[in-house]
Amino acid sequence: MAEAYIVEAVRTPVGRRGGALSSAHPADLGAHVLNALMDRSKADPAAVDDVVFGCVDTVGPQAGDIARTAWLAAGLPEEVPGVTVDRQCGSSQQAVHFAAQAVLSGTADLVVAGGVQNMSQIPIAYAMTAAEPLGFTSGPYAGSEGWRRRYGDREVSQFAGAEMIARDWDISRAEMEEFAYGSHQRAIRAIDEGRFEREIAPYGDAATDEGPRRDTTVEKMAGLRTLVEGGRLTAALSSQISDGAAALLVASERAVRDHGLTPRARVHHISARGEDPIRMLSAPIPATAHALKKTGMTIGDLDAVEINEAFAPVVLAWLKETGADPARTNPNGGAIALGHPLGATGARLMTTLLHELERTGGRYGLQVMCEGGGQANVTVLERL
């Protein structure tokens, strides 16, 4: 049976909006992790079959196939192609899935997968603003008769979806604030203990994630206004707007042998599932159940989990439904503290998951993310 191995994984620090990475061209952020990936793995760049990058809002400096642009900006071989994918927040996790599928199918032996996003330069949903001169002012669903017949005129919004999850799973604001505070504390501990140092390739003077707030308290969070009137969610319970890039090298058994590479993990499972696009953010729950059924695993078999903290209720509802160990879930903090550079987050989470399994000696790790349209990707890695 064919196997797909993770040989190397590296990321930039995650920069805060307006922070140390904000002025960097997205292609240069991508080029930085690509060069670091090649240097650390000792792989021959000319042997790479494809470069698959995730990115959302591919306009301006992120347009024109950022995967290809970043590879060329890195000074790497022109004969290697690149392609950019968009599965919303899970774009670079999907990039890893495509890379693994290419290797598992035997159509490729060495594939780079990753993602990049500079949200300081290209704010979320900027593409919709850019489309206004063309007469498109109400988002991707407005005007579709088929959509209206199926879902009516209900609001489609990540904020509305997060509020629905908090309501449907009866998650209080206080419970979410305790979780968010814990995310910052776990991230700060990870930084202070040097847990991220092996996975980060410093970018200029930026060597550490900028998002975690050492001065935050539950009391400060309790004083914030809600995002929607009468709601439970506040900015403190949401992922941070951020900048960053990450990349992984996926190899076949033949590539490992022919190029003298050292595999660090095996891709044990990849899948994606969909659910209600109005509630939008709850798909990690059925997606995780699907992955466990397909693999014959139980939630207790997982030594570490990375679930994207798009909003606090996403993770808290998932924990309630799966019965997962909170101590093994986002043990080094999540996007509430570390930030969420949309197209890069999937690869960032997988990079962190791999290094956490190595740090603790764990065998299996699961990554899952909520995504626009009511979708979720799931990956299970087995550390070697």
TrEMBL record:
Domain of life: Bacteria
Keyword Transferase among UniProt keywords: yes
Keyword annotations: Acyltransferase, Transferase
Active-site residues from the entry: C89 (acyl-thioester intermediate), H340 (proton acceptor), C370 (proton acceptor)
Residue stretches making up the Thiolase N-terminal domain: 5-253
Keyword field contains tRNA-binding: no
Pfam families: Thiolase_C, Thiolase_N
GO molecular function: acetyl-CoA C-acetyltransferase activity
All copies of domain Thiolase C-terminal, residue ranges: 262-383
EC number per UniProt: 2.3.1.9
Stored InterPro entries: Thiolase, Thiolase-like, Thiolase_C, Thiolase_CS, Thiolase_N
PANTHER family: ACETYL-COA C-ACYLTRANSFERASE, BLR7806 PROTEIN
Family statement drawn from the similarity comment of this UniProt entry: Belongs to the thiolase-like superfamily. Thiolase family.
Protein name: Acetyl-CoA C-acetyltransferase
Organism of this sequence: Actinomadura viridis
